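Supplementary Note 3. Input sequence used for the single-chain structure prediction.
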Amino acid sequence: MPTKPLLNIPDAERTPLVNQLLVLIEQLTQEKHQLKETVQQLRDEIARLKGEKGKPKFKASGMDRETDSGPDAGAPDGTGADAKPTDKRPGSAKRSKTKQLEIHEVVTIAPSQPPPLGSRHKGYRDFIVQDLKIQAWNTCYRLEEWQAPDGSWLRGVLPATLNGGHFGSELRRYALYQHHQCHVTQPLLHEQLTEWGIDISVGQVDALLSNHNAVFFEEKDQLLSTGLEVCRSITVDDSGARHQGKNGYVTQIGNDLFAWFASTDSKSRINFLQLLHAGQISYQITPYALDYMREQGLPQEARRRVEAHLTEAIAQPDCWAQHLDALGIESERHRRIATEGALLGSLIEKGFSPDLAIVSDGAGQFNVMLHGLCWIHAERLVHKLIPLNDAHQQDQTRVRDEIWGLYADLKAYQRNPDPDQALALAARFDAVFSRRTSFETLNQTLKRLHAHRKGLLLVLERPDIPLHTNGSEGDIRDYVKRRKTSGGTRSDLGRRCRDTFASLKKTCRKLGFSFWDYLADRIESREVIPCLSQIIRQRAGAASALP
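The predicted structure, written as discrete structure tokens, is reproduced below.
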């Protein structure tokens, strides 16, 4: 009697044991494909090191591009299914490329031969050339010295922008821009400056980048506290960031108005809550903190001890640890939950809004208060599954199309919220993510995503929040590039500088300011560009005033 194909078993014969075996087979097949991909990546890396070309990389999902203007819209770069060959990219319209340029020098060129007698001068034909002047510029400050009749001395004072050093503000501005904006490493920067005739040592290059940055540190510290105060939602992400030869992490917090980075040795929820304190970490037992501890499963006896010793805010982590010791809370899990709750309680007491929506890729450390999930990451879990036959391929394509359609309608709902439509969208979500297909691994993936229904559908309650974390992923990509070129930081000051200038650079870009102009404004105290936190406050206020 011929046997039936293993993966085409009718539903009536799919016992729980059969389903488990099918999932196991699919997982083993997935691992086999992943192993092949890993081998191919290693081969590509070997080929790259040999100077050869590797195999093209796997194409990205492109889910968000597909839904920018609705479910049938093409990609914004004109490559979608409905894009016309004549479509032009945004900003490609004809314009005068030299009309706004400042002219620094005018050179008049006469014909190579004198004009014949009787010729009339008919004006000029302008031809504008853009260029740079890069050269060393050394200044000798001659400080006058006078001795008064009473024997006292009067001396000239150096400009404050020099900070008593032998390198000017423009050189420092250039070094900061090259290192933080263009990712030029310190050795290459030193080589470049010496080739241009600057007599500078490796240590002096490091000093240019690290010293006299108090004004930048202060402004960076204000970004997060202001952003959390005036914004209704943020997106978050993290990545690797090595420090002192050890693996560490960088956390990004931001939205369309600001970006803020902090490098730490941990990426736990305690670490994230400490970062939200914006430098002023404190612990306090409040009703909100006790509710959190109860939700997280802290035993009643431990909660009773914590509640019986309500205290004022504790400002130091060591003091908080001693407080837990005094309460007799020794279990690592119980201490963690109590610490998270105390950090949350202190945040609320400081004025932190419980209605602030935090949108992440689903990492557990970000799951506090109102937690929204990124739809791009959710769809990616379906997109990266490897079908085993044509039926699996069809099921995967159908499910992805339904997710795309739902995503597009959620974006339309954001523009025009309607309570009746919210109920319909929630019902569609349940239908899509409760679907049963012939692809058992896809079924399990949909089931896991359906368990995160609250986070994925938070937009129905809060249409103002983003549906993805693309902004955070774009912001943190700079750290990935820096990690590949420079490895990591060696001193705590270097790590602080890296976080500070990454935050300021990205925030300038979001607010529409040139980072080059910003550096000059702060180094030379021009006070033309206002404080970035002040601009964030103004723009957030203007956005909230819109209907």
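The two ends are 71 Å apart (CA to CA). The chain has 21 helices and nine strands.
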